[in-house]
Amino acid sequence: MARKILNRRELREAGDAAERLEGEEKTAKKVAPKKPAKRKSRAKVAKEVRLKAFWGVFSQSLNQVSQFEYGERELADKKASELSESKKSPHFVQLVKKVIEE
Of 70, 64, 58, 65, which is closest to residue 100 (Cα–Cα)? Predict the structure, then answer.
């Protein structure tokens, strides 16, 4: 059986024409759809936290024994030294900040 002879030039021209049509359609499709506008992200508003300072007297195992107002540092030092002498374990004074709820 004899096969039909294919004309390569005609096939090439038909393929090129088809590619040109596809290219034109793609450019038309690329231009047509618009991108949706981006939504602005909402920034989280930082909650204002108010703190109040106290002096805390702590034991060696970091347990808070007592608490004094910020202006009463001398009383806190005195309490720490009394507890250190009586209990034979060192006590110390440290700044403590607590959240004020309104």
Answer: 70
Cβ neighbors of 70 (< 8 A, separation 6 or more) are: 52, 53, 54, 55
Cβ neighbour number for residue 67 with a 10 Å cutoff: 13
- Cα 75 to Cα 21, 26, 59, 72: the distances in Å are 91, 83, 16, 5
Return d(Cα 80, Cα 60) in angstroms, integer.
Answer: 11
pLDDT in tens, 35-81: 888 888 888 888 888 999 999 999 999 999 999 999 999 999 999 99
Q: How is residue 4 annotated by DSSP? A: P
pTM score = 0.52
Structure tokens, 5: 């002879």
